[in-house]
Amino acid sequence: MPRVQTPTLSTTPGVPLQRRLVEAGLLACAAGLVIHRTWVELPAGRFGESLALALLWLGLAWVLRRVRAMRMADAMAIVGLLALVAMAGPLPVLATVLLAAGAMAIGSLFVCDAALAFVVGAGVVAGVVGWLLPLPVHRAWLYAPLLLALVFARRRVLADMARTSLAEWHASVHASPRVAAAGMLALGLASAGAWLPTMQYDDLAYHLGLPWQLLRNGRYALDTSMQAWALAPWAGDVLQGIAQVLARAEARGPLDTAWLLASAALVARIAGRLGAPVEFRWMAVALLATLPPVTALLGGMQTELPAMAAMLALLALATRDEPRGLLAVGVLAGFLGGLKAMHPLAAIGLVAIAVARTARGRGVVTPLLAVALALGIAASSYATAWRICGNPVLPLFNDVFLSRCFAPTAFNDARWQALPGLPLPWSMTFLTGRHLEAFDGGLGMLLIALAGAAFAALFDRRTRWPAVAGLLAVVLPMTVIAYARYVVPGIVVMLPVVVATLVRLYTRRTALVMLAALCVLDLAYQANANWMLHTGAIKRAVGALGRDAPLFDRYVPERSLIDAIRRRWPDARVLDLGDASHAELAGNGLTTTWYAPVLHADALAADQDATGAVWARLLQAREVDFVLLRAKDATPARRAGLARAGAHRAMTAGPVECWRLARDASE
């Protein structure tokens, strides 16, 4: 294996200016930490826990290396796989492997790279299944044979991909074993976010609904009466639903890990094509893994995680030739649209440079087919929302579409507004809590620290257009809403670009020190990315040895009560009068929050009657069997209504009471 050569510094006259740009970004980051006293927000205890987990990981990998005589990076990968199986369960992991293999089988029809094939194939699967959601066909006995048939049909191609990927892995680890071990350790620490059970608010109120309906009912009800977002873009939830149906249990953690691994492979691949030697490809992986929002995204079902992989896949297509690359671009563009309407806007530059690379000499038919693929894969949710409610982006822009399914107003979340006098990248970095459900510093420092390197990338022919596309992916979402999570895919897209730029401008040692320092800084603020990480949820998940119940009892006791109800009374209707933790009830959950406009209005009217008579009639009319109630939501009218309805307190979990109505006398 040839030795890794230290890159020769460029002799271009603009190099001093480019270095000043890079250093200005680093100095601005240091200044911001001081000016805003962001160092006060450093979660020292959680950082210590991350370091302890890193030592544990190193210790287990060292033992494995001694026993099996393998390289440290290999041992760390095995420890990570075993940890995921232990924390998430073997069936969810196997279900995800089957789904990923089937996706790669489809993706291999378009591209030759394994990570690319997974992302492209997943887009096709999500697009096709999205059109079939209302049909009662979503069963494991159908999914599993179809996926196995795809894998069998493409077995030789998949075997070739596996051999190539394994050879590339061995070569990259052999070329830089120490940095590879550091990159794998960072990746392992990030993957710990996938060990957490699903507990984030949007997941409990919305995202879990589709997977649980597919598992329980074999179809999706397309019902906006209890969830205004029920017809919103659903590609991410469709893939979660397939994995859940196959596993017969939630499989969010393993599928999120698959997105992380695909993104890491693509970041390394792109960095290499932009001129970064092997050790810096591993540093690009480490930058990705230590970016605080990445670990937070691994703990939930938000679309930015698959969108991150899809945008990297577009950039990868712009840096290599693939047999059907233009069709793959169409699939990825459609997949991004199927995930969220924001993502195609952010990816417009990436789509443009990918099309410019892949459309050469393709005539007319292939581009038209690519456009048809994009529309077909993206359109299922929009077409369904238009057909049922007359608004393709319900509940957005309903002041224009005037759908009967939602109030005729312009939906706007007033929490996320730009701060007067501060550039958005600056305030998102140092005042993150104003732009995300997080703590200051929770977006990481790269948006400012590497801003200079991003602009320096514009000076070099190889990185110029990837840098333009990446900058657009960061800036365009900011023009729509000052919400920090939407810029995360753009930040990730910029990582291989800035790494290649630092390699070009600095000596090997200087560039490695810069990147390593940024990795440590971001790792220190990792726990500020959301409330679960900030309160030590990963430590508690490790202590619970993969059991969800202790974490549910502590963080979301509603899930403990819902699980108990579902086991004993699987068809019971449950009204959550608190935080809308009803999505997993698969159509049997009710909420009085704004997500359910009609019931929300009925609840407001019932609260005006102190006797509780209106509440009692409402509970009877909605055929409610159980009511979940916290003290803050227990108004006198609601208490009186429960009493009139003959309800009794059946069980409690922490601060949450579960009341059973007398109308259901069966056991």
TrEMBL record:
Provide this UniProt record's keywords sorted from A to Z. Answer: Membrane, Transmembrane, Transmembrane helix
TM region positions: 21-40, 46-64, 76-100, 106-133, 140-158, 178-196, 282-298, 326-356, 368-388, 438-458, 465-484, 490-507
Query: Superkingdom, according to UniProt?
Result: Bacteria
- What is the name of the protein in this document? Dolichyl-phosphate-mannose-protein mannosyltransferase
According to its UniProt entry, this protein's organism is Cognatilysobacter xinjiangensis
